[in-house]
Amino acid sequence: xxxxxxxxxxxxxxxxxxxxxxxxxxxxxxxxxxxxxxxxxxxxxxxxxxxxxxxxxxxxxxxxxxxxxxxxxxxxxxxxxxxxxxxxxxxxxxxxxxxxxxxxxxxxxxxxxxxxxxxxxxxxxxxxxxxxxxxxxxxxxxxxxxxxxxxxxxxxxxxxxxxxxxxxxxxxxxxxxxxxxxxxxxxxxxxxxxxxxxxxxxxxxxxxxxxxxxxxxxxxxxxxxxxxxxxxxxxxxxxxxxxxxxxxxxxxxxxxxxxxxxxxxxxxxxxxxxxxxxxxxxxxxxxxxxxxxxxxxxxxxxxxxxxxxxxxxxxxxxxxxxxxxxxxxxxxxxxxxxxxxxxxxxxxxxxxxxxxxxxxxxxxxxxxxxxxxxxxxxxxxxxxxxxxxxxxxxxxxxxxxxxxxxxxxxxxxxxxxxxxxxxxxxxxxxxxxxxxxxxxxxxxxxxxxxxxxxxx
Length: 456
Fold this sequence. Notes:
32% of the residues lie in helices and 26% in strands. By secondary structure, the chain is an alpha/beta fold. The protein has three domains: 2-120, 3-Layer(aba) Sandwich (Rossmann fold), CATH 3.40.50.720; 126-130 and 226-349, NAD(P)-binding Rossmann-like Domain (Rossmann fold), CATH 3.40.50; 357-448, 2-Layer Sandwich (Alpha-Beta Plaits).
Protein backbone atom coordinates (compact mmCIF):
# COMPACT_ATOMS: atom_id res chain seq x y z
CA UNK A 1 0.00 0.00 0.00
CA UNK A 2 0.97 3.65 -0.48
CA UNK A 3 1.21 5.15 3.03
CA UNK A 4 2.00 8.74 4.11
CA UNK A 5 3.22 9.33 7.67
CA UNK A 6 3.02 12.92 8.90
CA UNK A 7 5.41 13.50 11.81
CA UNK A 8 8.76 11.76 12.11
CA UNK A 9 9.13 11.64 15.88
CA UNK A 10 9.66 8.35 17.71
CA UNK A 11 6.19 7.07 16.80
CA UNK A 12 6.43 8.10 13.14
CA UNK A 13 9.90 6.65 12.77
CA UNK A 14 8.87 3.34 14.39
CA UNK A 15 5.85 3.10 12.09
CA UNK A 16 7.95 3.80 9.01
CA UNK A 17 10.49 1.21 10.11
CA UNK A 18 7.94 -1.62 10.49
CA UNK A 19 5.65 -0.71 7.59
CA UNK A 20 8.54 -0.44 5.13
CA UNK A 21 9.65 -3.93 6.24
CA UNK A 22 6.11 -5.13 5.47
CA UNK A 23 6.69 -4.06 1.86
CA UNK A 24 4.59 -0.88 1.80
CA UNK A 25 5.60 2.29 -0.05
CA UNK A 26 6.23 4.84 2.70
CA UNK A 27 6.46 8.63 2.44
CA UNK A 28 7.41 10.61 5.56
CA UNK A 29 6.35 14.25 5.81
CA UNK A 30 7.89 16.49 8.48
CA UNK A 31 9.04 20.09 9.01
CA UNK A 32 12.35 19.04 10.54
CA UNK A 33 15.19 18.44 8.09
CA UNK A 34 17.39 16.56 10.64
CA UNK A 35 14.51 14.17 11.39
CA UNK A 36 14.01 13.52 7.67
CA UNK A 37 17.75 13.04 7.14
CA UNK A 38 17.79 10.33 9.79
CA UNK A 39 14.88 8.53 8.14
CA UNK A 40 16.33 8.76 4.62
CA UNK A 41 19.70 7.44 5.81
CA UNK A 42 18.35 4.46 7.77
CA UNK A 43 15.05 3.48 6.12
CA UNK A 44 13.81 2.63 2.64
CA UNK A 45 11.36 5.55 2.48
CA UNK A 46 10.68 8.80 0.63
CA UNK A 47 10.92 12.06 2.57
CA UNK A 48 9.12 15.38 2.01
CA UNK A 49 9.84 18.48 4.09
CA UNK A 50 6.91 20.71 4.98
CA UNK A 51 3.69 21.28 6.93
CA UNK A 52 1.32 18.29 6.94
CA UNK A 53 -1.73 20.56 6.84
CA UNK A 54 -0.49 22.38 3.73
CA UNK A 55 -2.31 21.22 0.59
CA UNK A 56 0.70 21.85 -1.65
CA UNK A 57 2.94 19.75 0.61
CA UNK A 58 0.40 16.93 0.78
CA UNK A 59 0.12 16.83 -3.02
CA UNK A 60 3.90 16.75 -3.27
CA UNK A 61 3.86 13.73 -0.93
CA UNK A 62 1.40 11.93 -3.24
CA UNK A 63 -1.75 12.22 -1.14
CA UNK A 64 -4.03 11.85 -4.20
CA UNK A 65 -3.02 8.18 -4.57
CA UNK A 66 -2.45 7.39 -0.87
CA UNK A 67 -4.15 4.33 0.59
CA UNK A 68 -3.52 5.49 4.18
CA UNK A 69 -2.44 8.74 5.80
CA UNK A 70 -1.22 8.61 9.41
CA UNK A 71 -0.89 11.91 11.29
CA UNK A 72 1.22 11.48 14.45
CA UNK A 73 2.72 14.92 15.08
CA UNK A 74 2.77 16.28 18.63
CA UNK A 75 -0.11 18.64 17.85
CA UNK A 76 -3.67 17.26 18.01
CA UNK A 77 -5.18 20.04 15.93
CA UNK A 78 -2.56 19.70 13.20
CA UNK A 79 -3.23 15.96 13.03
CA UNK A 80 -6.97 16.52 12.63
CA UNK A 81 -6.58 19.19 9.92
CA UNK A 82 -4.03 17.03 8.12
CA UNK A 83 -6.46 14.08 7.98
CA UNK A 84 -9.33 16.29 6.83
CA UNK A 85 -7.26 17.81 4.01
CA UNK A 86 -5.83 14.45 2.98
CA UNK A 87 -9.26 12.81 2.69
CA UNK A 88 -10.54 15.74 0.63
CA UNK A 89 -7.55 15.36 -1.71
CA UNK A 90 -8.07 11.62 -2.30
CA UNK A 91 -6.53 9.61 0.55
CA UNK A 92 -8.57 6.45 1.18
CA UNK A 93 -8.11 5.99 4.95
CA UNK A 94 -6.96 8.37 7.70
CA UNK A 95 -5.57 7.80 11.20
CA UNK A 96 -4.97 10.65 13.66
CA UNK A 97 -3.23 10.71 17.01
CA UNK A 98 -5.37 12.80 19.41
CA UNK A 99 -4.25 12.99 23.03
CA UNK A 100 -6.07 15.79 24.85
CA UNK A 101 -8.84 14.49 27.18
CA UNK A 102 -10.93 17.56 26.26
CA UNK A 103 -11.50 16.01 22.84
CA UNK A 104 -12.42 12.57 24.23
CA UNK A 105 -16.09 13.28 24.97
CA UNK A 106 -16.74 14.69 21.50
CA UNK A 107 -14.50 12.25 19.65
CA UNK A 108 -17.29 10.51 17.71
CA UNK A 109 -18.61 13.83 16.41
CA UNK A 110 -15.10 15.03 15.57
CA UNK A 111 -14.36 11.87 13.60
CA UNK A 112 -17.59 12.19 11.63
CA UNK A 113 -17.25 15.91 10.86
CA UNK A 114 -13.54 15.74 10.00
CA UNK A 115 -13.82 12.42 8.12
CA UNK A 116 -11.18 10.73 10.30
CA UNK A 117 -11.45 6.95 10.00
CA UNK A 118 -9.55 6.11 13.17
CA UNK A 119 -8.35 7.99 16.26
CA UNK A 120 -5.48 6.77 18.42
CA UNK A 121 -5.23 8.17 21.96
CA UNK A 122 -1.84 6.98 23.34
CA UNK A 123 -2.56 7.82 26.97
CA UNK A 124 -5.99 6.20 26.99
CA UNK A 125 -4.66 3.09 25.22
CA UNK A 126 -1.82 2.88 27.74
CA UNK A 127 -4.28 3.19 30.63
CA UNK A 128 -6.31 0.32 29.17
CA UNK A 129 -3.13 -1.74 28.87
CA UNK A 130 -2.27 -1.05 32.52
CA UNK A 131 -5.80 -1.95 33.66
CA UNK A 132 -5.38 -5.38 32.03
CA UNK A 133 -2.04 -5.88 33.78
CA UNK A 134 -3.62 -5.17 37.15
CA UNK A 135 -5.85 -8.24 36.82
CA UNK A 136 -3.01 -10.63 37.65
CA UNK A 137 -0.24 -9.29 39.93
CA UNK A 138 2.28 -11.79 38.53
CA UNK A 139 1.58 -11.12 34.83
CA UNK A 140 4.11 -9.33 32.63
CA UNK A 141 1.70 -8.76 29.73
CA UNK A 142 -1.93 -9.59 29.01
CA UNK A 143 -3.59 -9.37 25.60
CA UNK A 144 -7.09 -10.39 24.53
CA UNK A 145 -8.32 -11.67 21.16
CA UNK A 146 -11.65 -12.58 19.54
CA UNK A 147 -13.56 -9.80 21.35
CA UNK A 148 -12.17 -10.87 24.74
CA UNK A 149 -12.92 -14.57 24.39
CA UNK A 150 -9.23 -15.55 24.16
CA UNK A 151 -6.51 -14.31 26.50
CA UNK A 152 -2.72 -14.53 26.27
CA UNK A 153 -0.96 -13.99 29.59
CA UNK A 154 2.82 -13.62 29.81
CA UNK A 155 4.41 -14.72 33.09
CA UNK A 156 7.79 -15.85 34.42
CA UNK A 157 8.20 -19.45 35.59
CA UNK A 158 9.47 -20.06 39.11
CA UNK A 159 11.31 -22.99 40.70
CA UNK A 160 8.19 -24.25 42.47
CA UNK A 161 5.94 -24.30 39.39
CA UNK A 162 4.61 -27.82 38.60
CA UNK A 163 4.83 -27.21 34.83
CA UNK A 164 8.65 -27.29 34.74
CA UNK A 165 10.86 -29.99 33.17
CA UNK A 166 7.90 -31.80 31.63
CA UNK A 167 7.29 -32.12 27.86
CA UNK A 168 4.38 -29.89 26.85
CA UNK A 169 2.66 -32.87 25.22
CA UNK A 170 2.31 -34.40 28.71
CA UNK A 171 1.18 -31.14 30.29
CA UNK A 172 -1.83 -31.04 27.98
CA UNK A 173 -3.57 -33.85 29.87
CA UNK A 174 -3.29 -31.75 33.05
CA UNK A 175 -4.32 -28.47 31.43
CA UNK A 176 -6.38 -29.44 28.34
CA UNK A 177 -7.76 -25.94 27.73
CA UNK A 178 -4.39 -24.14 27.92
CA UNK A 179 -1.74 -23.82 25.26
CA UNK A 180 1.81 -22.56 25.79
CA UNK A 181 2.29 -20.43 22.73
CA UNK A 182 5.66 -18.69 23.05
CA UNK A 183 8.74 -18.87 25.28
CA UNK A 184 11.71 -16.57 25.82
CA UNK A 185 14.88 -18.01 27.37
CA UNK A 186 18.16 -16.15 27.79
CA UNK A 187 16.86 -13.35 25.58
CA UNK A 188 15.93 -15.64 22.66
CA UNK A 189 12.29 -16.37 21.81
CA UNK A 190 10.90 -19.58 20.28
CA UNK A 191 7.56 -21.22 19.56
CA UNK A 192 7.44 -24.49 21.54
CA UNK A 193 6.28 -27.87 20.28
CA UNK A 194 5.14 -30.99 22.14
CA UNK A 195 8.70 -32.02 23.03
CA UNK A 196 9.64 -28.62 24.53
CA UNK A 197 10.06 -28.25 28.28
CA UNK A 198 9.78 -25.15 30.44
CA UNK A 199 12.65 -24.15 32.73
CA UNK A 200 12.84 -21.81 35.74
CA UNK A 201 13.08 -18.16 34.71
CA UNK A 202 11.44 -18.63 31.29
CA UNK A 203 9.04 -15.94 30.07
CA UNK A 204 6.01 -17.89 28.86
CA UNK A 205 2.70 -17.05 27.18
CA UNK A 206 -0.27 -19.16 28.33
CA UNK A 207 -3.31 -18.97 26.05
CA UNK A 208 -6.93 -20.00 26.48
CA UNK A 209 -10.39 -18.68 27.24
CA UNK A 210 -10.67 -16.25 30.17
CA UNK A 211 -12.13 -18.80 32.61
CA UNK A 212 -9.56 -21.50 31.77
CA UNK A 213 -6.64 -19.07 32.07
CA UNK A 214 -7.79 -17.94 35.53
CA UNK A 215 -8.25 -21.57 36.64
CA UNK A 216 -4.81 -22.52 35.30
CA UNK A 217 -3.02 -19.84 37.30
CA UNK A 218 -4.95 -20.81 40.43
CA UNK A 219 -3.72 -24.38 39.93
CA UNK A 220 -0.16 -23.06 39.70
CA UNK A 221 -0.65 -21.24 43.00
CA UNK A 222 -0.30 -17.79 41.44
CA UNK A 223 -2.09 -14.86 43.02
CA UNK A 224 -5.35 -14.32 41.14
CA UNK A 225 -7.00 -12.20 43.83
CA UNK A 226 -8.63 -8.98 42.68
CA UNK A 227 -6.55 -5.86 43.22
CA UNK A 228 -7.64 -3.99 46.37
CA UNK A 229 -5.45 -0.88 46.32
CA UNK A 230 -3.21 1.05 43.94
CA UNK A 231 -0.92 4.07 44.22
CA UNK A 232 -0.43 6.24 41.13
CA UNK A 233 2.63 8.51 40.88
CA UNK A 234 1.97 11.47 38.59
CA UNK A 235 -1.32 13.12 37.65
CA UNK A 236 -1.02 13.24 33.87
CA UNK A 237 -3.38 12.03 31.15
CA UNK A 238 -2.63 8.32 31.72
CA UNK A 239 -3.38 8.59 35.45
CA UNK A 240 -6.63 10.39 34.65
CA UNK A 241 -7.80 7.72 32.20
CA UNK A 242 -6.64 4.86 34.45
CA UNK A 243 -8.47 6.31 37.44
CA UNK A 244 -11.63 6.55 35.33
CA UNK A 245 -11.27 2.87 34.36
CA UNK A 246 -10.55 1.31 37.75
CA UNK A 247 -12.11 3.71 40.29
CA UNK A 248 -15.48 1.96 40.01
CA UNK A 249 -14.01 -1.53 40.49
CA UNK A 250 -13.78 -1.43 44.27
CA UNK A 251 -10.10 -0.45 44.24
CA UNK A 252 -8.81 1.95 46.91
CA UNK A 253 -7.03 4.43 44.65
CA UNK A 254 -4.52 7.13 45.63
CA UNK A 255 -2.77 9.53 43.27
CA UNK A 256 0.29 11.63 44.16
CA UNK A 257 0.88 14.77 42.07
CA UNK A 258 3.41 17.53 42.80
CA UNK A 259 1.52 20.34 40.99
CA UNK A 260 -1.09 21.88 43.33
CA UNK A 261 -3.26 23.33 40.53
CA UNK A 262 -3.37 19.99 38.78
CA UNK A 263 -4.34 18.32 42.08
CA UNK A 264 -7.31 20.67 42.47
CA UNK A 265 -8.43 19.99 38.90
CA UNK A 266 -8.12 16.21 39.31
CA UNK A 267 -10.03 16.33 42.60
CA UNK A 268 -12.94 17.97 40.75
CA UNK A 269 -12.78 15.50 37.85
CA UNK A 270 -12.31 12.21 39.71
CA UNK A 271 -14.74 10.81 42.28
CA UNK A 272 -13.56 8.22 44.78
CA UNK A 273 -9.85 8.92 44.24
CA UNK A 274 -7.64 10.35 46.99
CA UNK A 275 -5.48 13.10 45.46
CA UNK A 276 -2.28 13.86 47.40
CA UNK A 277 -0.26 17.02 46.69
CA UNK A 278 3.34 15.86 47.16
CA UNK A 279 6.43 14.64 45.34
CA UNK A 280 5.67 11.00 44.59
CA UNK A 281 9.32 10.25 43.88
CA UNK A 282 10.36 11.31 47.40
CA UNK A 283 11.06 8.23 49.52
CA UNK A 284 9.77 9.92 52.69
CA UNK A 285 6.44 10.57 50.97
CA UNK A 286 6.28 6.95 49.79
CA UNK A 287 7.02 5.73 53.32
CA UNK A 288 4.32 7.98 54.78
CA UNK A 289 1.85 6.44 52.30
CA UNK A 290 2.90 2.89 53.32
CA UNK A 291 3.88 2.01 49.76
CA UNK A 292 4.80 -1.56 50.72
CA UNK A 293 1.18 -2.29 51.67
CA UNK A 294 -0.41 -1.22 48.37
CA UNK A 295 -1.40 -3.83 45.83
CA UNK A 296 0.11 -1.97 42.88
CA UNK A 297 2.53 0.93 42.38
CA UNK A 298 2.16 2.62 38.99
CA UNK A 299 4.82 5.22 38.11
CA UNK A 300 3.57 7.62 35.45
CA UNK A 301 5.65 10.81 35.65
CA UNK A 302 7.20 12.27 32.50
CA UNK A 303 10.76 11.34 33.54
CA UNK A 304 11.94 7.79 32.89
CA UNK A 305 14.62 7.99 35.59
CA UNK A 306 12.17 9.04 38.31
CA UNK A 307 9.72 6.30 37.29
CA UNK A 308 12.46 3.69 37.37
CA UNK A 309 13.89 4.72 40.75
CA UNK A 310 10.42 4.93 42.33
CA UNK A 311 9.47 1.56 40.83
CA UNK A 312 12.63 -0.08 42.19
CA UNK A 313 11.95 1.42 45.61
CA UNK A 314 8.44 -0.05 45.60
CA UNK A 315 9.63 -3.48 44.41
CA UNK A 316 12.23 -3.63 47.20
CA UNK A 317 9.57 -2.77 49.76
CA UNK A 318 7.36 -5.68 48.73
CA UNK A 319 4.86 -4.18 46.29
CA UNK A 320 3.43 -7.13 44.36
CA UNK A 321 2.80 -5.25 41.14
CA UNK A 322 5.08 -2.46 39.89
CA UNK A 323 4.35 -0.82 36.53
CA UNK A 324 6.68 1.83 35.10
CA UNK A 325 6.06 4.19 32.17
CA UNK A 326 8.99 4.84 29.85
CA UNK A 327 9.27 7.37 27.04
CA UNK A 328 12.52 6.12 25.48
CA UNK A 329 11.85 2.84 23.70
CA UNK A 330 15.39 1.55 24.22
CA UNK A 331 14.80 1.77 27.99
CA UNK A 332 12.24 -1.06 27.77
CA UNK A 333 15.00 -3.69 27.48
CA UNK A 334 16.88 -2.34 30.52
CA UNK A 335 13.88 -2.62 32.84
CA UNK A 336 13.93 -6.41 32.99
CA UNK A 337 17.64 -6.45 33.90
CA UNK A 338 16.88 -4.11 36.80
CA UNK A 339 14.10 -6.32 38.15
CA UNK A 340 11.01 -4.56 36.76
CA UNK A 341 9.02 -6.80 34.40
CA UNK A 342 6.15 -4.44 33.59
CA UNK A 343 7.06 -1.37 31.56
CA UNK A 344 4.60 0.51 29.34
CA UNK A 345 5.30 3.03 26.62
CA UNK A 346 2.59 5.29 25.13
CA UNK A 347 4.72 5.69 21.99
CA UNK A 348 5.07 1.93 21.51
CA UNK A 349 1.38 1.39 22.30
CA UNK A 350 0.47 3.97 19.64
CA UNK A 351 2.79 2.46 17.05
CA UNK A 352 1.47 -1.07 17.70
CA UNK A 353 -2.18 0.04 17.48
CA UNK A 354 -1.59 1.79 14.15
CA UNK A 355 0.43 -1.13 12.80
CA UNK A 356 -2.44 -3.48 13.62
CA UNK A 357 -4.90 -1.22 11.80
CA UNK A 358 -2.76 -0.87 8.67
CA UNK A 359 -2.09 -4.59 8.50
CA UNK A 360 -5.80 -5.30 8.92
CA UNK A 361 -6.53 -3.07 5.90
CA UNK A 362 -4.20 -5.19 3.79
CA UNK A 363 -6.43 -8.28 3.67
CA UNK A 364 -6.21 -11.20 1.27
CA UNK A 365 -9.11 -12.88 -0.49
CA UNK A 366 -8.85 -15.95 1.80
CA UNK A 367 -8.61 -14.30 5.24
CA UNK A 368 -9.07 -11.05 7.12
CA UNK A 369 -6.44 -9.80 9.60
CA UNK A 370 -8.28 -8.59 12.70
CA UNK A 371 -5.25 -8.04 14.93
CA UNK A 372 -1.46 -8.32 15.09
CA UNK A 373 0.24 -8.39 18.50
CA UNK A 374 3.99 -8.27 19.08
CA UNK A 375 5.29 -10.61 21.80
CA UNK A 376 8.58 -11.03 23.67
CA UNK A 377 10.23 -7.86 22.43
CA UNK A 378 8.76 -8.21 18.93
CA UNK A 379 10.55 -11.52 18.21
CA UNK A 380 7.22 -13.36 17.93
CA UNK A 381 3.81 -12.16 16.73
CA UNK A 382 0.26 -13.33 17.39
CA UNK A 383 -2.24 -12.87 14.56
CA UNK A 384 -6.02 -12.92 14.69
CA UNK A 385 -7.55 -13.92 11.36
CA UNK A 386 -11.08 -14.55 10.15
CA UNK A 387 -11.18 -17.45 7.68
CA UNK A 388 -13.26 -16.65 4.57
CA UNK A 389 -15.42 -18.89 2.40
CA UNK A 390 -13.60 -20.59 -0.48
CA UNK A 391 -10.11 -20.67 1.08
CA UNK A 392 -7.99 -23.68 0.15
CA UNK A 393 -7.20 -24.58 3.78
CA UNK A 394 -10.85 -24.99 4.92
CA UNK A 395 -12.24 -28.30 6.28
CA UNK A 396 -8.89 -30.11 6.02
CA UNK A 397 -7.39 -31.67 9.19
CA UNK A 398 -4.47 -29.57 10.42
CA UNK A 399 -2.13 -32.56 10.29
CA UNK A 400 -2.72 -32.72 6.53
CA UNK A 401 -2.16 -29.00 5.89
CA UNK A 402 1.64 -29.08 6.18
CA UNK A 403 1.92 -26.22 8.65
CA UNK A 404 5.15 -24.38 7.99
CA UNK A 405 7.99 -24.69 10.50
CA UNK A 406 7.97 -22.10 13.29
CA UNK A 407 4.21 -21.46 13.01
CA UNK A 408 1.57 -22.55 15.53
CA UNK A 409 -2.21 -22.63 15.06
CA UNK A 410 -2.97 -21.67 18.65
CA UNK A 411 -6.74 -21.28 19.07
CA UNK A 412 -9.88 -21.56 16.96
CA UNK A 413 -13.03 -19.67 17.96
CA UNK A 414 -16.19 -21.11 16.42
CA UNK A 415 -19.65 -19.94 17.42
CA UNK A 416 -18.18 -18.28 20.54
CA UNK A 417 -16.50 -21.54 21.62
CA UNK A 418 -12.71 -21.63 22.09
CA UNK A 419 -10.96 -24.71 20.70
CA UNK A 420 -7.35 -25.67 21.44
CA UNK A 421 -6.74 -27.51 18.15
CA UNK A 422 -5.07 -30.87 17.56
CA UNK A 423 -4.04 -32.53 14.31
CA UNK A 424 -7.54 -33.83 13.63
CA UNK A 425 -9.20 -30.43 14.01
CA UNK A 426 -9.92 -28.24 10.97
CA UNK A 427 -10.68 -24.61 10.10
CA UNK A 428 -14.17 -23.65 8.93
CA UNK A 429 -15.33 -20.52 7.12
CA UNK A 430 -16.07 -17.79 9.65
CA UNK A 431 -13.71 -19.19 12.29
CA UNK A 432 -11.46 -16.85 14.21
CA UNK A 433 -7.95 -18.30 13.97
CA UNK A 434 -5.21 -17.24 16.40
CA UNK A 435 -1.81 -17.90 14.83
CA UNK A 436 1.65 -17.59 16.42
CA UNK A 437 4.71 -17.06 14.20
CA UNK A 438 8.18 -15.61 14.17
CA UNK A 439 8.02 -11.89 13.47
CA UNK A 440 7.72 -10.99 9.79
CA UNK A 441 6.97 -14.51 8.50
CA UNK A 442 3.18 -14.21 8.08
CA UNK A 443 1.01 -11.66 6.29
CA UNK A 444 -2.09 -13.76 5.52
CA UNK A 445 -3.51 -16.91 7.11
CA UNK A 446 -2.65 -18.98 4.04
CA UNK A 447 1.04 -18.15 4.62
CA UNK A 448 0.95 -20.62 7.53
CA UNK A 449 0.41 -23.62 5.26
CA UNK A 450 2.14 -25.28 2.35
CA UNK A 451 -0.91 -25.46 0.09
CA UNK A 452 0.88 -26.60 -3.06
CA UNK A 453 -0.48 -30.16 -2.84
CA UNK A 454 -4.08 -29.27 -1.96
CA UNK A 455 -4.79 -26.26 -4.18
CA UNK A 456 -8.08 -26.80 -6.00
